[in-house]
Design goal:
The protein is mostly helical and 311 residues long. It has one domain. It is built from 13 helices and three strands, in the order H-H-H-H-H-E-H-H-H-H-H-E-E-H-H-H. Helix 4 runs parallel beside helix 6, helix 7 runs antiparallel to helix 9 and helix 9 packs parallel to helix 11. The longest helix has 38 residues. The two termini are 13 Å apart.
Length: 311
């Protein structure tokens, strides 16, 4: 079982606190190139030093900004690997899935499924209010975005999944010895990590329903499927297709996407709809395809630490 793979006598919860700090340090190290680039532009090129995060995001050409931002996630992913291997004495596979090897077919199916839903959702919004979008396509920058995004965005989303649905979920399972507490805690923390996104400032805290709801959905499919493969595919599709399809002046960072949203953002049905309608539909599709059962036990059941220790 997925959570049980991280529950060992030597895996005390305080080790996960140390491991989290080490992963954060690795991420900070990965931010050094971006910081050097900012200081270079400010003090060597004599450009104005950025006064806020939005100014930093607009300091470089979008593809360069994307590359510099994603470096920190690559460092964090390496940090996760070493923390899992040397601090917790686990294999990287054990925080990925309960299967004997990673099921790439699951990742691919989830990626394709959510890509389809994402494109369909965008088309629905576009044809409802086409005046809110402008054609933003520039061949060379877009092709560079496709290449960079296809490599770097899955690294970013995989890093987040390994932190929340892998590492921390097993960590909270070590603390609580049940399944509902890791599910709720990782969902709340995942959602809270987005609180400083510019989308929150523009739309208000109601958008946290979407972020926390997405974290909960990813946690549910991880526990029900006994592995992160579906979450990895979903998250990669969500961020990559979003980056390729549409950008805006108020999003967390801008890209050379196909369209640009010029509307004034507001939190409405589009924030609630995925959580209360689309995610349940996806859960139904996944449950039928992978024959999920015993939902209550897999999502809320207790973990028998004595039996695990005796194995």
């Amino acid at each position: 079982m997925f959570l049980e793979q991280g529950i060992k006598p030597q895996n005390k919860f305080w080790l996960y606190l140390i491991g989290s700090v080490l992963i954060i340090i690795a991420s900070f190290i990965g931010q050094i190139p971006f910081s050097i680039a900012v200081f270079y532009r400010s003090f060597v090129k004599k450009e104005a030093f950025p006064s806020d995060n939005a100014a930093i995001m607009n300091m470089f050409e979008p593809n360069i900004t994307l590359f510099l931002i994603m470096i920190s996630f690559a460092f964090a992913l390496v940090g996760i690997y070493f923390v899992v291997k040397y601090l917790h004495r686990q294999t990287f596979l054990s925080v990925t899935t309960s299967r004997k090897k990673i099921d790439w077919k699951r990742i691919r199916f989830s990626f394709i499924l959510w890509s389809f839903f994402s494109v369909l959702s965008f088309l629905a919004v576009y044809f409802k209010s086409p005046e809110n979008f402008i054609w933003n396509f520039k061949p060379v920058p877009f092709l560079i975005l496709v290449v960079l995004g296809s490599i770097l965005i899955p690294i970013q989303t995989s890093t987040e999944e390994y932190v929340f649905r892998g590492y921390l979920m097993q960590g909270f399972a070590n603390l609580a010895h049940n399944k509902w507490f890791p599910l709720m805690m990782t969902s709340l923390i995942f959602g809270s990590m987005h609180v400083f996104n510019p989308e929150v400032a523009k739309m208000g805290y109601v958008i946290m329903v979407y972020y926390i709801g997405t974290g909960l959905f990813l946690g549910v499919i991880t526990l029900m499927d006994e592995g992160m493969e579906l979450a990895l595919g979903f998250h990669a599709a969500n961020n990559l297709i979003g980056a390729l399809l549409v950008t805006s002046d108020w999003s967390v960072f801008q890209t050379h996407s196909l369209f640009k949203d010029t509307s004034e953002p507001s939190a409405g049905l589009d924030v609630i709809l995925p959580v209360v309608v689309i995610y349940p539909v996806l859960l139904f599709i996944f449950s039928k395809k992978y024959k999920w059962n015993d939902w209550k036990e897999k999502l809320t059941g207790r973990i028998n630490v004595v039996e695990i220790s005796n194995q």
